[in-house]
Amino acid sequence: MASLPSTPQWRLHRQGISAPLGDDPAITVRHLLAVQAQDYYGSLWAVGLRTTGAREADVERAIAAGRIVRTWPMRGTLHLVAPEDARWMLALMASRALDRDRARQERDFGLDARTTRRCAEVITRLLEGGKRMTRGALYEALVERRIETDGPRGLHILGRLAHEGLICQGPREGKQPTFVLLDEWIPPTPPRDRDEALGELARRYFVGHGPATVQDLAWWSGLTLRDAQAAVDIAKPALSPHDHDGARYWFAGVAEPPAPAVPAVHLLPPFDEYLVGYKDRSAVLDAAHHRQVIGINGLVSPSLVVDGRVTALWKRSLGRQGATLALTPLQPLRKRDHAPLARAAARYGEFIGQPVAFDAD
Fold it and tell me: CA separation (Å) from 75 to 81, 122, 277?
């Protein structure tokens, strides 16, 4: 069995970072299967980075048109997914988060089955007919109907109904997301049985994230290791294995990635799939820097990747003259990295439609 080529090089290629996936943000999301999206503007850049010529407004238009859906398909976390993938992903993986939180929601917030049904009935009546409402407006409407939303209870109500596939996020009103009925927002899709969904999950994950291990798939999906292995077993005809350092990696797609430009520099947003898509990040992140990049609370910082490895963190501030990027190096930048870094910053500036400069400090 062939030894594994450079894992960072493979992942940069398969994720569309070293070579864009196309000129349509919806195609990019479909290729990756899911893009973590609790940081809204970061998720827009995650898609734009991988899409030829995309601007922030292009990605937002795709979301507003329902060509990309923002919902909670796995790990209890917001993701961008293609509309045809939303239902089967929710059915396969969101139940894990529901089962994990059910007892606590009932104990701490009184969200038993009867109360949850009442919330679902009320929200269905509020949103049916193509209506959309912000979180605040939904909370007010629920309180008017004697359903309390104080503290985190409102969040748990909406999260529960999103995991059950009743609602998802729709277009934004200003800076606020709205909620819509999932079945009204996206076209109908045929149901998949569990084995079919598991096989599709594994095949699509390794297309967009390979090479990766079964453990990586289990982490990313939130499924058990047993289910992740079952998914790989079902998808094996479409996968290729590679053994490396005692671990088995899987990938799907082209046999060899193209050689990247050297040096290759990329500005990744927070929670980018290049880091969050794997349980084991050692191929791209030094252990000594792990806590600086991925906080104890699970927050994944925006990062600068040079030749496939995380070498710095970055932070954006917006002003009247444009955007300023402040770098926090994790290791010294080489002189030869300066020109490609400037090109990466210019591309980001094109995406947000503002000039970009680096903090002189």
Answer: 14, 26, 12
